[in-house]
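Hi there,

I know you've been waiting on this one. I reran it after we fixed the sequence typo, so this is the corrected version. Both the input and the resulting structure follow.
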Amino acid sequence: MKLDGRIAIITGAGSGMGRAMAQEFVANGATVVAVDVRTDPVAETVKLLDDGRSVAQTADVSSRADVERVVTEAVERFGRVDILCNNAGVLDDYTPAHETTDELWNRVIGVNINGPFLFSRAALTPMLEQGKGVIINTASISSFVAGGGGAAYTSSKHAVLGLTKQLAFDYGKRGVRVNAICPGAIHTGMTGHLMTADGRNPHVDAAIAATPAGRWGKPEEIAHMALFLASDEADFIHGAAFTVDGGWLLP
């Protein structure tokens, strides 16, 4: 099993891509610390895992105290942290800059880039002591282009790639691999509001239909990439950004 015996922290694990990652990792031998700001959904994720070892943690990824508590308790309980998936994220509903409030800006930046930084900083301590670790950041196609979100979201996802590259540069020779996954249109609870009441949105449908895949992506397809990057098969991959977007960026 690719991740046999490894301990993984996955944020945003209460649903969508985070839940799919948790299921994929446990199916391949890992134990998961599932993290989400919502208590009931993340507890449901651990119930679905049904492995007898994985645990749920309620935490706000933008809170330093919450982040440090999660990492400290993971080390106390399991003795190590092998994998960190910084997956938690929020959208800004395509809000342009002149309509972006301080509250919206701070929330998006707090979750989407401060969260990965805080969790990475905290997890690096046990990883460097072990001499080995993997950090996987969930970025976006909005890390490369405009139009996939508003001012706050696009800025935050560009920043995630910068953080990924710098962490890879700083810590690769010390045994910690850092990479990013850049999803396109993935059908999750977070993107469900983009659909109309009858499940159709002509604007979204048209954009997705124009991609080579011609469909929404599935959370499991992001989880498959995360599994590969977390495994030893990806040992020579550092600081890379993998688009899993159905070909959205080809044009």
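Quick highlight: Residues 122 and 145 are 30 Å apart (CA to CA).

Best,
R. S.
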